[in-house]
Amino acid sequence: MRKADTITFKVDPNLLEILQNMPNRSEFIRCAILNALDHVCPLCSGSGVLSPAQKKCWDKFAEKHEIRKCSENDEIHFLCDVESDE
């Protein structure tokens, strides 16, 4: 079994203070990263930018789908117009 690697990163003083008070900050950071990776945008992979090929795909998808803010929870949702065409 391969030994785990160590990764370091910079944090601002406020985050450092919060992390220093965590009982197991390494485990917390690992869980937070895995959780964030589990919620990455499937189109842009978290970059926030679509490549030209992804944009073309998105434009085709958007012809039959709508993005709308939910009035109940104020979150963005996709609505499929294909279902209403049937």
Describe the protein.
The chain has helices at 13-20, 25-38, 52-62, 81-85; strands spanning 65-69, 76-80. The protein is an alpha+beta fold. A two-stranded antiparallel sheet has the order 1-2. A hairpin with a 6-residue loop joins strand 1 and strand 2 (76-80). It is elongated, with a radius of gyration of 20 Å.
Order of helices and strands: HHHEEH
Question: Helical stretch count?
Answer: 4
- How would you state the average pLDDT, rounded? 87
Rg computed from alpha carbons, rounded to a whole number of angstroms = 20 Å
Strand count, sense and barrel status of the largest sheet are: 2 strands, antiparallel
The low-confidence runs, each spanning 5 or more residues with pLDDT under 50, are none
Kindly state the percentage of residues in helix: 40-55%
Broad shape: elongated
Widest sheet: strand order? 1-2
Any idea how many domains? 1
Question: What oligomeric state best describes the polypeptide chains here?
Answer: single chain
User: Helix/strand/pairing class, anyone?
Assistant: alpha+beta
Strand content: 5-15%
- How many strand units? 2
Question: Cα distance, first to last residue?
Answer: 54 Å
